[in-house]
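Below is a filled-in request sheet from our internal design queue. Each sheet records the structural input a requester submitted and the sequence that came back. We keep these sheets so that new team members can see what a complete request looks like end to end.

REQUESTER: design group, bay 2
PRIORITY: normal
MODE: inverse folding
CHAIN LENGTH: 565
BACKBONE (tokenized):
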């Protein structure tokens, strides 16, 4: 274990005190995750959790009770030890890569800004300030904080160009928050090269390798992280990585343990929100809603959980409540993805005017984020593919694929190509999302649905039927629009033929006339525009967690979609 992880977490510096190892403060960026197993269990029980969470909390409390017997119950002079203040709490959180409460973040930022005006050469305080700015941007969806975070972190490197792992970690985490995975990889690998036994660079590297589609490097980074550190933050990282690898049970167990071990309400709310997302993806809509509600109850500033409530309530048919939840989430923290989901829900409800308002808001928010260096190309790509100009979506997503060819980009680009009429090429990307050799191990209803619709338009009825059915098995509620559309497409395809395989004809190796091609090949079945007539509508879709727009009528062929940009 790294020596810095054995240092106790202090109560935090007061205003005007420098931060960093030179002053004895171990809570800056890159210090160990706060506490060991006893401290992680202290936050359990703040809200209803799944059975595993309750068991974990109970075991943690037993361990904590045993440890407390060995610790002094009073401070100097018999007084109880003081509780850490907001600056110290935020310092500990940002140093461990954990969510921090917004009031605590504001206190920490003000404290470090005041200190740096008097001590502008304190590289550790610059690193703390930059990391806090990045967390403020993430929690408030205010991209304007990201340039401030970058400036502070680069100032830390200017003051201390060598042996400054804290600044390197901060820059890697900042790049992940912006969706810039190539830059995150560069900073994260530089930090690991500088301090191989330091665990704090690995969470950003896991995210970066995933975004770049390097699944082998992702596994190596995760294994190294788990070997170096345990605790709620690393368990949450592992949960996301397990889900991407198709290990749904392991992902659920890891995030339940993370929520049980959270040490602050902000941490617990963030982990509950992720637990709700995983429950949604596997089709457990009520469990998903329970997690989201618990997250909002634990920390009202957890806007992702509030939008998640809207998603789950819409799936349960509680439309009025869903609309209220989405509106509340966007009023508190406007995010492009949530605006797109709400717009598509309006469109499903037959309110095209309200939908267009949300689509315009998506474009406005994407422009705002781009000014802060945030990459929202996936959201914008889905918006253009389904509600704007599919050719523009293809152009943007091809550029995104060149920058960072991850599985999520492959799915979005394949769908955009499908919407633009190029189903032959679309299939090459849709196949990749489910190809284990390329890291496509996630069991995603949306990925399966997209592939099934592309195969249907190519006349590959067997594979199309299989993948559309798989989408409904994974999550029968994956979208209030697309789940019914998948059912309609399956009905249009009909049951598979009852008779046996046709007798082969022609030369050896040739397919018999009318024999169906395999849907597992990455190649195309003819040039674009030569697919068989479409037996079912081609509906739209949004990002993996979202709803979608209404399908076209099955009675008419899909019209050319005019460009709107």
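RETURNED SEQUENCE:
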């Amino acid at each position: 274990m790294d020596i810095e992880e054995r240092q106790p977490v202090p109560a935090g510096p007061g205003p005007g005190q420098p931060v960093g190892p030179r002053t004895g403060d171990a809570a800056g960026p890159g210090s160990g995750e706060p506490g060991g197993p006893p401290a992680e269990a202290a936050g359990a029980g703040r809200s209803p959790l799944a059975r595993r969470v309750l068991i974990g909390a109970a075991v943690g409390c037993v361990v904590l009770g045993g440890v407390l017997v060995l610790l002094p119950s009073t401070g100097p002079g018999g007084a109880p030890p003081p509780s850490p203040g907001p600056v110290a709490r935020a310092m500990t959180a940002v140093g461990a890569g954990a969510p921090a409460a917004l009031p605590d973040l504001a206190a920490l930022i003000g404290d470090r800004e005041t200190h740096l005006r008097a001590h502008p050469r304190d590289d550790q305080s610059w690193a703390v300030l930059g990391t806090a700015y990045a967390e403020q941007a993430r929690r408030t969806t205010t991209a304007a904080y990201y340039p401030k975070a970058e400036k502070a972190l680069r100032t830390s490197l200017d003051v201390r160009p060598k042996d400054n792992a804290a600044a390197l970690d901060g820059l890697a985490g900042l790049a992940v928050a912006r969706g810039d995975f190539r830059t995150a990889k560069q900073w994260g690998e530089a930090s690991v090269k500088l301090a191989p036994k330091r665990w704090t660079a690995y969470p950003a590297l896991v995210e970066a390798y995933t975004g770049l589609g390097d699944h082998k490097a992702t596994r190596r980074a995760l294994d190294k992280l788990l070997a170096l550190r345990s605790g709620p933050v690393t368990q949450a990282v592992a949960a996301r990585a397990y889900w991407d690898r198709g290990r749904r049970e392991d992902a659920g167990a890891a995030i339940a343990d993370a929520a049980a071990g959270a040490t602050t309400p902000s941490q617990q709310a963030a982990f509950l929100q992720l637990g709700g997302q995983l429950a949604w993806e596997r089709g457990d809509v009520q469990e998903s809603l329970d997690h989201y509600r618990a997250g909002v109850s634990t920390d009202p500033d957890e806007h992702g959980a509030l939008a998640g409530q809207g998603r789950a309530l819409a799936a349960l048919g509680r439309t009025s409540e869903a609309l209220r939840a989405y509106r509340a989430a966007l009023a508190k923290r406007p995010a492009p993805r949530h605006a797109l989901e709400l717009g598509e829900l309006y469109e499903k409800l037959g309110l095209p005017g309200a939908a267009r308002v949300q689509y315009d808001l998506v474009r406005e928010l994407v422009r705002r984020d781009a000014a802060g260096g945030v990459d929202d190309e996936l959201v914008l790509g889905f918006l253009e593919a389904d509600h704007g100009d599919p050719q523009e979506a293809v152009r943007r997503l091809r550029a995104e694929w060149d920058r960072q060819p991850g599985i999520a980009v492959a799915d979005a680009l394949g769908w955009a190509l499908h919407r633009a009429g190029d189903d032959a090429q679309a299939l090459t990307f849709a196949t990749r999302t489910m190809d284990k050799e390329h890291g496509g191990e996630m069991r995603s209803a949306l990925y399966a649905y997209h592939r099934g619709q592309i195969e249907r338009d190519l006349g590959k009825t067997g594979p199309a039927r299989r993948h559309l059915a798989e989408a409904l098995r994974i999550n029968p509620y994956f979208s209030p629009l697309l789940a019914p559309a998948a059912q309609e497409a399956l009905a249009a395809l009909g049951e598979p033929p009852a008779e046996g395989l046709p007798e082969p004809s022609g030369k050896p190796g040739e397919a018999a006339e009318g024999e169906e091609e395999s849907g597992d090949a990455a190649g195309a079945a003819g040039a674009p525009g030569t697919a068989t007539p479409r037996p079912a509508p081609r509906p739209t879709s949004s990002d993996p967690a979202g709803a979608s727009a209404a399908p076209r009528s099955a009675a008419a062929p899909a019209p050319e979609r005019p460009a709107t940009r």
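SHEET NOTES:
- Confidence is low (pLDDT under 50) at residues 1-78, 504-538, 541-565.
- The radius of gyration is 25 Å.
FILED BY: M.R.
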